[in-house]
Write a structure and sequence with these properties.
The chain contains seven helices and 15 strands. It has two domains: 45-170, Beta Barrel (OB fold (Dihydrolipoamide Acetyltransferase, E2P)), CATH 2.40.50.90; 182-239, no CATH class. It is α+β, with helices and mostly antiparallel strands. Strands 1, 2, 3, 4, 8, 9 and 10 form a seven-stranded mixed sheet that branches. It has a four-stranded mixed sheet with strand order 14-12-13-15. Strands 5-11 form a two-stranded antiparallel ribbon. Helices cover 30% and strands 24% of the residues. The longest helix is centred in the first third of the chain and has 19 residues, at 11-29. A hairpin with a 2-residue loop joins strand 3 and strand 4. It starts with 10 loop residues before the first helix and ends with a strand.
Length: 243
């Protein structure tokens, strides 16, 4: 008599086999760089009401979401008007985003995570791409260093002289670089991010935050300086929210 015993193939076994085949297929066709950028459990989307952190970052369902493909003026940044004067384009950008998401369900599709652990997301309200809306209405630049998704919307905004295109304006990435360069000279070891402890918790301030100059670091309270946002976040600190 043969020592091998045969078992009937059940529906459950077939189902598990199919799941395995599908999973393997996904891994084979999904770009390797995308898989590397998406930690376990971060595939898919998040959905819920949103809290605005700044003109290109929101918090949804417990996750900070960086609007992928765009870069908005920093809070406190000013832009030129068409003929003369300036306007608070950073504040206006955050306010415009707040109006887009206020009281609505926001759904963000993941495009991976950035180096700070934030989801890079394409976000929608009532089926409308709010990343695209921010660029088209002149409240953000297409972040072409990382993505060309919204270059068409930026072209439209520029032609219509909308928002940041109504006069001379400095791209947000240039604005940040200049303020970081200025702050790191006086910061310990060039670590220019201020970690402040408040009644709201552990908050960190970047050099381009309008409150940055007024924030004092008191070592005895456990406050400290950080060299990078990733370091601050890993230590349990969170970014200052636009007020």
């Amino acid at each position: 008599m043969s020592s091998f015993v045969t078992y009937p193939i059940t529906r459950r076994a077939v189902a598990f086999a199919l799941i395995g085949v599908v999973s393997l297929a996904v891994l084979l066709v999904w770009p390797a760089r995308e898989i590397a950028a998406l930690p376990s459990g971060h595939f898919g989307a998040v959905s819920g009401t949103a809290r605005v952190i700044d003109g290109d970052t929101i918090a949804v369902d417990g996750r900070n979401v960086r609007l992928e493909g765009i870069d908005a003026p920093e809070h406190g940044q000013t832009c030129g008007r068409r003929f003369f004067g300036t306007w608070q384009c950073g504040t206006a950008s955050a306010r415009a985003l707040s109006e887009l998401v206020a009281g609505r369900i926001v759904t963000c599709e993941s495009r991976g995570d950035d180096k700070y652990g934030r989801m890079l997301g394409i976000c929608f309200v009532d089926g409308h791409d709010i990343n695209a809306t921010m660029v088209r209405e002149g409240y953000a630049w297409a972040f072409v260093k990382y993505s060309d998704t919204y270059v068409h919307e930026e072209r439209e905004a520029r032609e219509e002289r909308a928002g940041i295109w109504s006069g001379q304006s400095e791209p947000a990435w240039v604005y940040r670089e200049k303020r970081w360069s200025g702050a790191e000279y006086s910061a310990p070891s060039g670590c220019a991010i201020k970690g402040n402890i408040t009644s709201y918790g552990r908050i960190y301030y970047m050099p381009w935050n309008p409150r940055y100059a007024s924030v004092k670091i008191e070592d005895r309270k456990g406050e400290r300086w950080f060299c990078s946002e990733a370091e601050a976040i890993a230590g349990g600190w969170r970014p200052a929210v636009v007020q």
